[in-house]
Specification:
By secondary structure, the chain is α/β, with parallel strands linked by helices. The chain has twelve helices and ten strands. Strand 4, helix 4 and strand 5 form a beta-alpha-beta unit.
Length: 308
């Protein structure tokens, strides 16, 4: 499992390359008080930039990154953006495989970072298979969307920043797709007693289904958040974290996600994509109800959307 030491190492490694995003007080939801972690202000508009830099920098330290061959990623968009951006900053080539239905705004940005974009299939899993074939043929460094130790540790730095800004936080609310962000936050706060609320769309309940079955299982991929939370099953690191310290697992439907997305824009001018709005939706729709005086931080983790 990823440990706090791994997260601390990631923080030190990536600090020169990433932004320390703000934690801002928000309007209360229910009886508790609320803060929003503005990770949507990260480079590329998404938290995945942290893991991308940590993966590539750590691989370079270990001699695993060939600067002539570069990196390969498979992504519905955001992970590809993060890895393409990191590769450009580090001076190595990047090839990103995305599903054919990836949002145009994300594909255009990938190309703006100098990445080679390959369209493959209609789900992340199909893009992943195509990426693995490219890695096998070229020896490029594969950067997983959510399930590698360096990726998870990089994401966990968000939790360290929340603790630094709000030491008495009781609860952190996080959206879950493949589970990399959730596992990183879990590692960052392990042993503190802080509750993690893991939020998923009803249409893609990877962690919720795994908890019910007692093991990771495949789920269908559908709904408005499929482009960023569209993993078929929870990743190994996400599952290991859930087995060790069971989170509070809640589901939100597409209507609640879209309403939360509108509310984040209307009330805070946060241009949250649907996957990023899922965490806030759990609070706004009452899927998770904070207790009296409970101090809650919700991660707004991505802004790669067309605000029109």
């Amino acid at each position: 499992m990823i440990t706090r030491a791994d997260v601390d190492a990631a923080q030190a490694r990536t600090a020169p390359y990433t932004r320390r995003t703000p934690l801002v007080a928000a309007d209360p939801v229910g009886a508790g008080s609320l803060w929003i972690k503005g990770e949507y202000m990260q480079h590329c508009g998404v938290f995945k930039t942290r893991g991308a830099f940590n993966r590539q920098l750590a691989a370079r330290e270990r001699g695993e990154l060939d600067p002539a061959v570069g990196i390969v990623a498979a992504s519905g968009g955001n992970d590809g953006l993060a890895n393409a951006f990191a590769a450009a900053r580090l001076g190595v080539p990047a090839t990103v495989f995305v599903p054919e239905n990836a949002p145009t705004v994300k594909v255009d940005r990938l190309r703006s970072y100098g990445a080679t974009v390959e369209l493959s299939g209609t789900e992340y899993a199909e893009a992943y298979e195509a990426a693995q074939d490219r890695v096998a043929r070229t020896g490029a460094l594969f950067c997983h969307a959510y399930d590698q130790p360096d990726i998870v540790a990089g994401a966990g730095v968000i939790g360290v920043e929340i603790l630094a800004d709000l030491p008495d936080v009781d609860t952190i609310v996080v959206a879950v797709g493949g589970g990399g962000l959730y596992a990183g936050i879990d590692a960052a706060v392990a042993g503190t007693g802080i509750r993690i609320v893991a939020v998923e769309p009803v249409a893609i309940p990877t962690l919720h289904s795994a908890l019910a079955a007692g093991e990771p299982v495949d789920v269908a991929v559908a709904g408005v958040a499929a482009d960023s939370l569209g993993a078929r099953r929870i990743g190994g690191h996400g599952w290991a974290a859930a087995e060790a310290r069971r989170p509070t697992s809640v589901l939100v439907d597409d209507e609640a996600i879209l309403a939360a997305r509108r509310a984040l824009w209307t009330e805070y001018r946060i241009p949250a994509e649907t996957g990023a709005a899922a965490a806030y939706a759990a609070l706004a729709a009452g899927a998770y109800v904070p207790g009296p005086a409970e101090r809650v931080a919700v991660i707004a983790c991505g802004a790669n959307t067309d605000v029109a």
